[in-house]
Amino acid sequence: MNALQEVEVDMSVEVASMFRLRFGISQTATGDWSLLNLDLFRPLTPVSVRVASGLLPVPQALINGYVTGQRAAYALTPGDSTLEVTGMDATVLMNAEEKVASWPNLPDSAIAAAIFGQYAIVPRTQPGAPQLVEPEGTTTQRGTDIRFLRQLAQRNGFDCYVQPEPLTGIDQGFFQPPAITGLPQAVLNVNMGPETNVTEFRIDYDMLRPTAAIGAGIDVLTKAVQPALAPSSILPPMGLEPALARVLPPPMVRLADTGLMRTGELQARAQGVADESSFAVFAEGNVATDVGLLRPGGFVNIRGLGRLFNGSYYVTTVSHAINREGHTQRFRAMRNAVTMTGADVFVPV
Fold first, then answer.
1. Is the residue at 347 inside a domain?
2. Global pTM?
């Protein structure tokens, strides 16, 4: 711990979460190097990062990861040599082996729960109906477990990621739509004088990103046309005006090469495209730990942006940087609507 100089943890719902540990190293009397001579960080060594911050003195788990790399920098100036240890969350184990497996008569959520269970990860899934039922077809996996799960998540418009439960530290596998209802993680204030708790904040509004989706297939047995149409997002809008409803005429994409034949399958895929594309307003900024530890997969309420952009934002990425000077958090978030609803809650919970 005396040698530890900095800890960085990048948490995300879109890609694997990662950590980086930077240590100071020095040459020993025998000509070896400190820490390296102990060989502590062997391939896939488990590493857990917990942080006690703010008013809650109990350490909270940020990541349970596995060592994937080292970088030793040997400087000529004494005291400047460093060792960087990097690693990824449990999805690195789920990406180690390519498989061919069949999952007959099971909904995607049950498949996700079964795969997460193989790695002692507690599944957090949303129930659903089977996509394929024998003898019409069987859901078949060709690839690693995490890539297969992300394919299933994409066709349902779900997020798929692994994150530890804060207090117990037990890894949870999420396979569900974005969690944009309930209570906010924090209330963030921009340009609000002494109440300001966000710096370097910016908003990007990609106005032509939202799109409706349409698709069609042919039923193998009956040869009947199987249509699907998703003219709007079915996710709760995080503002008064849904982003897709503001684009007139609305863009439309046609699904191709989906490999899906039934209306139910195509409808889920089309709806997933519309739901994902509806997140067109992106926020980014730095916050201190006095707002608490932010986590991807929840939402925050932000004010001080004006009527158009005030409101709730779904957090997708949080980068923690911890060193002897303090602890900072850089977050990225998004929303699928604009304009305050009038019912927005800006009271810290």
1. no
2. 0.90
